Amino acid sequence: MAATEAPRELIKQGAEALVYKTTYLLPTIPALLKHRPRKPYRHPTLDLRLTKHRCLSETRLLTRCRGLGIPVPAVYFVDEARGEIYMEWISGRSIREVLDAMIAEGRKEEVNDLMKKMGQVVAKLHQNDIVHGDLTTSNVMVRGERKSGLLAGATMEKVDAEVVLIDLGLGMMSTQEEDKAVDLYVLERAFLSTHPQAEDLFQDVLTAYEGSFKGAKAVMKRLADVRMRGRKRSMLG
Amino acid sequence: MSKRPQDETTNPRKQPRLAMSTPKSTIALGLEGSANKLGIGLIRHTPGQPAEVLSNIRHTFVSPPGEGFLPKDVALHHRSWIVPLIKRALSESGTKVADIDCICYTKGPGMGAPLQSVAVAARALSLLWKKPLVGVNHCVGHIEMGREITGADNPVVLYVSGGNTQVIAYAAQRYRIFGEALDIAVGNCLDRFARTLQISNDPAPGYNIEQMAKLGKNLLDLPYTVKGMDCSFSGILASVDQLANQLLTGKPKPLMNVEGTEVVTREDLCFTLQETVFSMLVEITERAMAHVGSSQVLIVGGVGCNERLQEMMGLMARDRGGSVYATDERFCIDNGIMIAHAGLLAHKQGFETTLEESTCTQRFRTDEVLVNWRD
Questions:
Q1: CA A222 to chain centre
Q2: In chain A, whose CA is at the least distance from the CA of B275?
Q3: Choosing from A134, A160, A183, A225, which is the catalytic residue?
Q4: Are B169 and B158 in contact (CB under 8 A)?
Q5: In sequence order, which residues have a C-beta less than 8 Å from that of residue B341 and are 6 or more positions away?
Q6: What tens digit of pLDDT does each residue of B324-338 get?
Q7: Choosing among B139, B158, B218, B219, which should be mutated to test the A contact, i.e. which has the most A CBs within 10 A?
């Protein structure tokens, strides 16, 4: 394996995982590799158990989303013993960067459109009782083109700005309004901290969210509580 | 790895007593009694010099094995010991009452009855000696003392004790909580496990678990409950208690290791519990460090003097090109000096607690305090 291993380029180092850009199967198929390295401070048995569990649960969530038609990267290959997940390379930029550019250029229409799509995607996630767990503007990508097919005959086609959710490493299944509201709250905070005119923008996200599924009203109500006390539950009472 | 303060007489950070009686230096008396330790401390601040510990004494209420400490018993303990302890602190350090600038006491968080006993003593002294009162947040006391002793400038702080588990970083004049335990504190989990196994509470249950864990080698499966930068311990406690009961009774069958080759010992259980909960703590700390982009980590609180936790944190910090700062039991475990230190920092900014406001509270969040002595 080592002799034929595809070259990889480190693009992000988080607390838990290293993210590389590489290729999968063929040098023409770009892929993203998420590697959870061994943690020397952890007992080897515990380390192996956690790495396995996390790889598999992230993969499970990704495939579930895929099946439901929620835009996430496709999983190519998992080696849970080594802590590796190979997945589809999403060509595009994070919504954080895209928004900065759009706002700077005054492309109001496109911004509104993007906000609406974002609200709808998050709504679809929550409607199916999936919680992202780390829904920041860095973890939402916007892609302008998509590859149809993988191997021979694959073509790139232009699509209207499409919103893709990435990094479900902290995601989980949950029916609780609290968890969903915290997702929205984290997103709101991410908006407010990086985009000056964000308040109106985020309102567009919420409007789209609220109109997208039946349980949304209850989550919105819960969001008001979460805003009042912050993300942490108050220890009072 | 961990930086340990040296003996007070040889501490290189301690400056010669040149500023002994210059008017610029200030002295605070600190009274701490939020849990089962009663701590009295006297500290001197001289501009441009490290803080000087004049006295740091403590008396601990120890309950018999299998029992925790009840608020009413602890309150009685504090009431009976506070006068002799303050007298000793004054006489041992040769401090005159006239030299004291303020009286600092723990306002919270902590157990109600013990907090009240100490607050009463603080008010009485304030009236008797005509000195201003300063109510101090216990968590901020730990953080400030840790920073002063270790010299860590702007670290991510892991505060772990019997009542608190928080990952904290400083931003815009507040100590902000990035992650915390959502149910019981990690020290509480360890203490209660010690009760199940009838491990001695002398000098501290956590200390005895640490010693036993050194002899353990079999790692059993326990839940691992980290959620982002938060964690929880009650499920782990329930699980390990169940294993402990199986070990003690041998029912329904003797407790074996995962491979089924060896009978599990009490030491193995201590080892398992420590490895699991400390891994969780290191993980949430690492996530906070990645989040705020810091490579320094400071461990404070009673659980922070556990050397295995310090070692694990050191391995993590090394991988991130950083370092870990920790103190020993004199400053990690609840003490009066940290209350004096944090109180004096606030007092020098003009902060004072009037007699009417000199209450105490069981719930007092770390981020409620305006930290106006830092930029």
A1: 22
A2: A43
A3: A134
A4: no
A5: B28, B30, B41, B43, B51, B141, B144, B145, B148
A6: 999 999 999 999 999
A7: B219
- Residue A115, pLDDT > 60, answer yes
Which residue, chain included where needed, has tokens 């968590």?
A: B139
Asked whether B315 and A41 are in contact (CB, 8 A), the reply is yes
CATH 3.30.420.40 region(s) of chain B? Answer: 17-146+332-368, 154-329
Calpha distance B281→B187 (Å, rounded): 12
Residues of chain B with Cβ-Cβ distance to A46 below 8 Å are 219, 224, 275-276, 279
Amino acid at B70: L
List chain A domain ranges.
2-88, 93-229
Contact A40 B315 (CB under 8 A): yes
CB contact under 8 A, B315 and A41: yes
Q: What single string gives the DSSP state of each residue in A48-86?
A: HHHHHHHHHHHHHHHHHHHHHT---PPEEEEETTTTEEE
A204 is catalytic: no
- Measured distance CA(B271)–CA(B244) in Å, rounded: 13
CB contact under 8 A, A41 and B313: yes
Cα A61 from Cα A72, distance rounded (Å):
10
C-alpha distance from residue A153 to each of A30, A144, A159, A218, B131 (Å): 15, 20, 18, 47, 85
At the second CATH level, the architecture of A2-88 is 2-Layer Sandwich (3.30)
Q: Do B228 and A49 touch (CB under 8 A)?
A: no
* Residue B116 to residue B124: CA distance in whole angstroms: 12
pLDDT in tens, B109-159: 999 999 999 999 999 999 999 999 999 999 999 999 999 999 998 999 999
Angstrom distance (rounded) from CA A54 to CA A109: 40
Q: Which CATH homologous superfamily contains domain B154-329?
A: ATPase, nucleotide binding domain (3.30.420.40)
Secondary structure E strands in chain B:
26-32, 37-45, 52-60, 102-108, 133-137, 156-160, 165-171, 174-180, 226-227, 230-231, 296-300, 323-326
The phi, psi pair for A111, rounded to 5°, reads -60, -50
CATH of domain A93-229: 1.10.510.10
What is the phi/psi pair of residue B248, to 5°? Answer: -70, -40
Fold of B17-146+332-368: Nucleotidyltransferase; domain 5 (3.30.420)
- Of B224, B228, B312, which is closest to A50 when you measure between CB atoms? B224
Return all residues near B23 (Cβ < 8 A) that are at least 6 apart: none
Are the CB atoms for B3 and B322 separated by under 8 Å?
no
Interface test with A, best of B316, B318, B324, B362 (most A CBs within 10 A): B316
Q: Which two tokens stand for residue A194?
A: 């990086």
Q: What is the ipTM score, two decimals?
A: 0.86
Q: Exposure string (b/e) for A36-58, b if CB count within 10 Å is 16 or more? A: beebebbbeebbeebbeebbebb
Q: Do domains A2-88 and A93-229 have the same CATH topology?
A: no
Q: What is the DSSP letter of A37?
A: -
Looking at residue A22, its pLDDT comes to 96
